[in-house]
Structure formats: structure tokens, C-alpha cells
Amino acid sequence: MKRTLATLLLATLAVLCAAGSAAAAGSLLIKNGTILTVTRGTIARGDILVINGIIARIGKNIAAPPGVPVIDAAGRYVLPGLIDSHTHIALAGTNEGSEAITPEADVGAVINADDTALFTALTGGVTMAHTMHGSANPIGGPNVVLKMKWGRPSEELVVSEAWRTLKFALGENVKQSSRTIVAGGPPPRYPQTRMGTNAILRREFLRAQNYMAEWDRYEKLKGSKNPPKTLLPPRRDLRLEVLADLLKGKMVARCHDYQATEALEFMGLAKEFGFKIAALEHAWEAYKIADELAAAKIGISVFADSWAYKMEAAEGIAYDAGYCSKKGVLVSINSDSNERIRRLFNDAAKTMKYGGLSEDEALRLVTINPALQLGVDKIVGSLEVGKQADIAIFNEHPMSAYTRCDMTIIDGDVYFDRAGIIAAREEAAKKGGRP
Amino acid sequence: MPTRNRFALWSVLGALCVLPAAAASDVGPTYAIRNVRIVPVTGPVIEKGTLIIRDGLIESLGAVDKTAVPEDAEIIEAEGLTAYPGLISGHTNLLLEDPAAGMGQRGAAGTPTLPAVAAQRGAGTAGETAAGTPELMLLTQLRPAKSTMDGFLKAGFTTVLIAPNRGIIQGQSAVVNLNGLETGPMVLLTPAALHVNFTTNRGGYPSSLMGTIAYIRQSFLDADHYANAKAVYGKNLKGMKRPVHDPFLEALIPYVRDKKPVIFQCNNAEDIKRALKIIEEFKLSGILSQANEAWRAEAALKASRAKLLVTLDFRPPNGSFYTSQGEDLRKKAEAEIYPSNPAALAKAGIAFSLTTFGLTDAAAALRNVRTAIKLGLPEDVALRALTLVPAQTLGLDRQVGSLEPGKIANVILTKGALFDEKTQVERVFVDGVLWKF
Fold first, then answer.
1. What is the architecture of the domain spanning B87-400?
2. Chain B partners within 8 Å of A93 (Cβ)
3. d(CA B303, CA B283)
4. Do the Cβ atoms of B206 and A186 come within 8 Å?
5. pTM for this structure?
């Protein structure tokens, strides 16, 4: 099994390396597929022309310009590459758990492009993922949005157009409910309760405000006619700098929460200190506060149907996503997993059973909605002329139980080709190599 | 006159006391190595030459018929032998008092532990934990041991950089000649560089790599701020409250302000990119060590001026993709992929030194050079990477790294070409003295 995987991964790596020069080209024509644009309806037997990584035309009977390869999608479904709004893939380390408040710990600094989860994601049509700091701390750290460019260097994965997001967390993880306190071991970390969590967050926001005021005072003095000769810039504090960016609107908050009450408290903090919450993570009790979320334009990024796995998830329901969608909340379905990321479409489809969403509505939960939550809706999340060519081709409708992803394209380059990989493996087997 | 007599007596006694300890300051021996093949590294090979060593330095070298042998020289007939400059390992952890100490030495090294100092800098800042001991001077931990030295000298290494090896900001290294058991005469340069490792602090902050990167950046920011405060204070001694003295930050000033080199230990390709970002941010004189995935960061390295100290320890790093995808790939990684690192760099035209970092057995280092050569590393590049290039990288190329008149007489005599399978180092001169194994 391991060997098979290794062969397969290496085969893809080799293909990608060989295509290294073509990577800059990123041009292809997809012919005769059922195109699910997500934002512009469905086109039967349609074509998509991609030039230099950008969707140049969508329509019918498009002819391939010279040198542009053609992919036959007849009988198949062509859709925007799926986007996972909450994962921890492709990182060297997930939590800076030694302290409660660590906004300086930026996951963007520890991207691991060798993580095979990138490839796993591709096999399920996922082209982009929000890779996040863990939920061990009330304030974790900045997250990063990556394209699943398996085989490319880490810096090429980063989606710089995305909003800068900062991870917060509430509830059992941050109050360390499941941690056993051993005699003689390290003392329990503050906070140990939800009220402590709220208090420490307020304390940090106040500190950030003071920090901003300190810099403002300095800049003012520096710009004055006769600045004091002993004037010194304040000490730069990486921790408070990030929080200051949040308070200045240069970043948005993404907050792990389970229960409605803690979500409301966090929304109160956002109002008090004037920062934007892009989405609440997991949000198992969002259905209880759907109106408040919709009014505040706060999205949720949730699991489909895996609730009640711990106390604070006891009142989770599988109707959370569907119900909140219908209430006007911006909902995405996430995997939060290196493995489930390849079945994100299955999880999205569950909202049709639980919550009665249509196929199109369900597909939005893993395409344009997460794009909106990440601030990348202008570049990806749907198939539109001018958007980046992140495209998945499925053999059946992606919300069907019988579907599978055949091909995954990022910026106009094929990063996963099921048929090609199978052929390469069979070829290798014929030559006496390992299948 | 009594006074005079007493003076004379003290002089004699003083000389008696000092003599044994002051051997290195004595006049060293003069050698004429004759009929030797000389590979100076910086000049053309002399097939049949004479090399004159006097009092620790190379006095002259040249063809046998053109080089006079001084009368007082001890003649060493070296027919069939080849003289090379002593090899240099630009990063080692040799001869440490207690390799497990380092971080534990913190109190002794005088790191600030006063909560007041840490608190003043705010939570999570440098100096709070044992993650950083920039003020630690390697020299204080150096305990020369003849057996270790013998091993390295037998493999041809006469000069090594010895670095502390615990924590994230580990302390300051020294470059020494392996010339005896006394530390004073060994030193070529101290402090040589500041050492930074992308590791984590067990049981404390930072416990993750991303925390570590923030910790390193915050430490440099704090040092810069501290230097700034001191400079302003220096101009306003009257009328300004003095900045609180901080040994941690004090130690970092030469590195953030005066371009003293900072050596980053890079476990994998991503560490190289992380180090380059920090070097760029703080305009450091950066050196990347270990770097056995340097070939995977070619583009970033080409775009940077940071120097490279590439290890001859070809073991794949922990978490390497190549070792986690099955036996076949793992074997290939160990036998071929990682040992091809130097060859790949040479092919890409990226300059680098080779070091013994991570190897305790110097003979293994030479074996690994041969492997690298088999995998395509040109021999002349290998030789320079072990002599002149590390000398340049460490700023010691006027003293060591080649055979030239006036340079320190670190000379090795081999039977056969240095990188041939069966070649033995026959004799080693360190600081102009023939080493006795």
C-alpha cells in the first residue's frame, strides 16, 4: 500500500517536474462538459478555454488555439476547484500551545509543501485550502491560504490575494478540558474557563489598543516641529502588531467555537473592539443564533454530520449548515482533516439530505462560499471569464453519491489526472516495476 | 644591588613558571619539506617542490631547484607525498565540555532570569526562557581532548569552527586550530559567529516551529531596539534615564548592527528559505549551515548572497518526504539523493563550503566527500570547499585556506591524491608544528 502510494506520488511529481516549463503556460481547452459555473448557471456540452492560467472563454464550440491541448469532458461535469475553508494541512506544526496568546506564531512561516495531503486534496477536486493555526489557544496565530500545487515549492502555493486571517478559539480546547493535570507536572494554563477565555481576549485587545496608541504618540512627536532628542520609537512587538492589524481592519478573525453563548460573547468583543469576524469554525450551535449571524454578516465553516463527539458538541445537529444557509448565513463545509479533504463534495452533498438544499446550493458550500469567506471570490470559487483556472472534472454530478474526481487543474495546469496515473502504474507493472 | 638581584630572581622564577605554558609564544621550528608535490589551492600545482615552514607560518614554497633550504631547517624528505592546506570544517560541535549542557549552562553564562527584565519586554519575548543564550561564548565550554583531535587531524582537518549546540539562539562560536590541549593558543577567531537553530523549546515557549521563528525575529527586533536606546542614551547621558542593561540583547548587537555573521542551522529546504527571510529582514550577514537539502532551494539561494556551509552528513533530515514513502525511495535517498547535494550545487554554480557538521567521525567525512565526487562533485570544487571557501566565509582567508607565504602553516602531507580511496594523511603540521599522533 505504501509502495503503491509512493510510486503514484513520484509519478505525479515526475509529471509535474517535466511539466515545469509548461507550468508557466497554463493553457488548455476543456471540451463538451456539463459546466457547473456555480454563479452563472449550468451549461450543457460547453467548453472552457484557459490561457495562461486564466479562464479566457466559456461557451460552446470553442476551437483550440494552436498548441493548446484539448481535454475531452464529454459526459462529465466541469466545476470550479473545491475550496476547503478550514484545514491544517501542509504545515510543520499546528499549535504554539505553550502560551494562551500567540498571535505572532504565523503558520505561513512553516508551510510544508512535501505534505502528501496536498495530493490527497487534489484527488478530491480540492484546489485551495485555508490552512490554519490549531485551536489550542484563545489567540492562535495567522493562517494562510494555499493552492494545492503538489510538487511545487512552498512559496508558489501561497494565495497572496486572500484576506489575512487570524485564528481564535473558544471552549473546551482552549480551557484545556481534556488535559490531565499531573502532580509535579506543569501547572494548568490560564484560562481554564470560558469566562477566563473572554477575559484574556479582552485583556489582549486592550493591550493592542495601548500599543497602537503608543505608536501614534511616537509618530506624532516624531513629526512635530521640535521632536525631543531623547525620542525613541516604541519597542516593536510581533504579538501586538498582529492584533493591531486586526483592530485596524487589515486582518479578519476566524474563530473556533462550538456553543452559541461563547459565539455571542466573541461577537460582542468584535463589536466592542471593532474587528471583523469572517467566519466561526465548527459552530455547532449556529442554528440557535442564525439570525444574529446573518445580521452581523458572519459566516460559518462547519462539518456536515459529525456531531456529539464531545460535550460541547452535544447539541450539534446535521441540519446546522442547511438551516443556516436558508437563514442567509454564509456557510461553508470544511474537512479539518488530511483525509476527509478528498471527500469534501460528499460532505457538502449531505446538506441535501439534512436541510434540503438543492444540488446547486450544496455545491456553493465548497466553492463560492468558502471563496467569499477567504476574500478570494474575485479570483476563484466559480467558473467565470477572468477568474483563475482552478477547475475540477468529475465523472458524475459532484453532489451524486456515485461521483469521483477525474482531473484537477490549478492555474490551467493539470495537477491530478486519474487516468494518467492509472496508465502510468499499469505501464510500470508491465515493465516489472511495482504497481 | 639588592633590588636588582631580587628583580633578576623574580625574572628567572617567572620565566620558569611561564615557560611550559607559553610554548606557543616561543619560536616554532623550521621545516623544509622537500621533493613534495604541492597543491596550494590558490595557485598552480608544483609537481616537485619545497615548502619552508618557519615559526608557525609558511615562509616560502616553490620548485625544488628554485627554493633555497635555510640552514637551520629540519629537512623532511617527502618524495611521493602531496602537500595540501589543512582542511577546514566550518561548523562542528567538537570538544564541548558537556554536549548535553548548553541550555543548562544558562545560569552560569549569566543570562537574565529576573522576571522584571523579561516582563519589561512583554510576554513571550526573548530572554524569558532557556531557548536563547546568545551571550554564551563557546570558548568557555571548550575542553580539548587529544583523541578527538587525533581523529580530525588524521582526516586532514586542522581548523574547525566549534559552535554551541543547544537551544534556538545558541551562542557564539570560535574558530580554532587543532594544535594542542590549551585553548588560548588554539584560537583563530572568537567570537566567530552567532548560531541559530530552528528547533523548539521543550516544555516552554516556543514549542512550535512557527513560535520559534517569531522568537528569533522578536529577539533581533529587541536587540535593535536596545541598540537604538543605548545610542540615544549615549548622546543624552545627562537628562535621560539609562536603558536597563541586558546581557541577552547586548550579545546580539554586533550581529544586528555590525554585520558579524549569523549562522543558521537549516535542517531542510524550508529552513533555508526561512533563514533567508530573516537574513533579509534584519540585513544580517547570514550563513546557512547543514543545508543538506540546499539543492531543493536552488532558486532562493541564487537570489541571495548568504553563504553556505553544507554538511557532509548526508543522512536525510527527520520528516523528509524521501524517507517516508517506502523502503525503495528511502534507500535511494540515503545512497544517492542526499549525497548528490554538493554535486547539484556545484552544477548550479552555487558556492559552498563542506563541513563535518553532525559527524563525530572525521574519516566518515572524507568517505562522504568521495561519495559526493562519485556522484558528480568536481574534485577541485571539493578541495576548495574544504579549504579556501570556508576560510573566506569565516573571514580568515588571509590566514588559512591555502598554501601561500605568510599564511599559517597548516599543512597536510598525503600519500596519493587527497580524495583517492586509499589515500592516507601521513603528516600534519598545525601552526607549523608537526603533530604527534
1. Alpha-Beta Barrel (3.20)
2. 208-210
3. 15
4. no
5. 0.91
